[in-house]
Amino acid sequence: MQLKVYLSGEIHTDWREEIAHGVRDAGLDVSLSGPVTDHAASDDCGVAILGAEDNKFWHDRKGALLNSIRTRKGIEDADVVVVRFGDEYKQWNAAFDAGYAAALGKSLIILHGPHHAHALKEVDAAAQAVAETPAQVVDLLRYVLTGALPA
User: Fold this and answer.
1) Helices and strands in the chain, H and E counts
2) Structural contact between residues 20 and 138, judged by C-beta atoms closer than 8 angstroms
3) Tell me, what DSSP letter sits at residue 140?
């Protein structure tokens, strides 16, 4: 069995790379995808392609709409959606992605530290698992694919 996993959420740390390395090291048949993680490219894609905007609202909206094409496709095609909530910034887009995935009936893994447990209790309640580390996500994927518990 192969799993298609979409990695959504926080873009300021290397959690995606940790999961990618863990999946590769474990030899799991997992295909990973996610949003554009170059923050400047993600913010400016709309105006870079469709033309400048004097108003920051329209600048941001063009980028958000363009990015939503990739996000929708990734979530819709995924078997499992992992949504990471980081420590430093509020990730409203991550909460939206989690809700969208849940509404589509996607298997959902939420990833955050213990200090977000209260704030994300409703998001966590929609998930099949809530992990605190990328290594736990890899262990979850290993179990789903092979039935093997961590060593």
Assistant:
1) 6, 5
2) no
3) H
pLDDT of residue 151: 82
pLDDT-derived band at 87, boundaries 50, 70, 90:
confident
Task: Identify the burial level of 150 via C-beta atoms within 10 angstroms of its C-beta, where 0-12 means exposed, 13-18 middle and 19 or more buried.
Answer: exposed
Q: In terms of C-beta density within 10 A (0-12 exposed, 13-18 middle, 19 or more buried), how is residue 125 classed?
A: exposed
Cα→Cα distances 16→11, 28, 30, 55, Å: 9, 15, 13, 33
Nearest CA-CA partner of 31 in 83, 62, 74: 74
Tokens 């580390």 identify what position? 133
Q: Tokens 């704030």 correspond to what residue? A: 119
Which helix or strand (DSSP H or E) is residue 45 part of?
helix 39-50
Query: What is the average per-residue pLDDT within 45-52?
Result: 98
Domain layout of the chain by residue ranges: 3-38+78-146
Which helix (H) or strand (E) element contains residue 82?
Answer: strand 80-84
| pTM of the complete model | 0.96
State the fold for domain 3-38+78-146: Rossmann fold (3.40.50)
